[in-house]
């Protein structure tokens, strides 16, 4: 399920194509190098805030500024390559937080010019999808993309990754992260991971609002509800923090499985792929797996190396884009905080 | 070569100018093209112009309020420092 494919999957090309990818749209900064379907290196750092605190744009940008060149050096060293071996420099154009995006884009633009290589701005969501396809080998899956900033159900049709359903307010990962802050769960290595571990210690379900609206989901009401109830219930001993973690996961994951199943029925799809940081949650994978088994469908998922934001995913999407003839001129290389998955014309798929 | 990074609205009161010399014209131009694509996050109240001539990158600001000017100049200095560090670590520019 999580094996790295070692053979190039695409049509032969005169020479091997090496793409370096820079990612820093949220609290992870990563640089990855991909050569024809093989991840040569993928170092990453995470900006971890104290319990109860989220990551703010300017502090996150400062973190990225402090480590980006070290991570870049690691990426080249681990791949055993020099700048001359690189064919294209890819970076995240958006969506994401403005200040961190600019920081990473500036380094990408500078090295692209120093090394005289073409530059390529990549949509972050497309990066997750293409990385997932490479790692899992899924050919045409219904995609559930779940992270701290995004929650979308996506299917490919006629040169676009089309959004079938999405959150109408906050992302599922944002709901989990903010719940973690309310009850002061550690952000190390990530709030979602710690919620998952705590949830394993409970099986007592506290009923929470369940908000699926057609193809879309909503998490802000659930968050408000648990924020308000948490201290009351925990203070009176009516339930434990573990019970709340368990109940929150069961509720929001059931919602995600429901809209994914609806999109599959609509598209006649027999494959599901989960990408994005929340996608490495094993309970979500397990619940999705049950649904897939009932439908005779296959589930594809990856582990934290590729689910969580990383540089190789930008390199991989950049590789596909570059090979289909795309490049980004420097004057057009501005970053954008809003950049929908379906804005990108998928020039590399039939 | 010059790039206008944002529009100035109304009568600008406060101005700030920087001249940054680089080892060569090529590096000044690289810095210009790395630092100029992104628009100022704030709409209005500040104008910024960058140009590279010979080996010097020149930046001028014109703003209505000191606070806005300070934020923009501060953020530019952070970005400039990052470009300079990147050039030190991964330069000099490759030959054509």
Structural commentary:
The complex is a heterodimer of chains A (350) and B (96). In chain A, 42% of the residues lie in helices and 19% in strands. With 350 residues, chain A is α/β, with parallel strands linked by helices. In chain A, strand 12, helix 8 and strand 13 form a beta-alpha-beta unit. In chain A, 51% of the residues are buried. The N terminus of chain A is likely disordered. By secondary structure, chain B is α+β, with helices and mostly antiparallel strands. Chain B has a 4-stranded antiparallel sheet, with helices on one face. In chain B, a hairpin with a 2-residue loop joins strand 3 and strand 4. The relative contact order of chain B is 0.25. Chains A and B meet through helix 1 and helix 2 of A and helix 1 and helix 2 of B.
Task: Describe the structure concisely for a colleague.
The complex is a heterodimer of chains A (350) and B (96). With 350 residues, chain A is α/β, with parallel strands linked by helices.
Q: Which structural class should the secondary elements of chain B be placed in?
A: alpha+beta
Structurally, the number of domains of chain B stands at: 1
Radius of gyration of chain A: 20 Å
Share in β-strands of chain B: 25-35%
When the domains of chain A are counted, the total is 2
Number of helices of chain A: 10
Largest sheet of chain A: 6 strands, mixed
Let me know the average pLDDT of chain A. Answer: 95
The CATH class assignment of the largest domain in chain A is Alpha Beta
Q: Enumerate the strands of the largest sheet of chain B in spatial order, edge to edge or round the barrel.
A: 1-3-4-2
What's the story with the biggest beta sheet of chain B? Answer: 4 strands, antiparallel
Task: Specify the CATH homologous superfamily of the largest domain in chain A.
Answer: ATPase, nucleotide binding domain
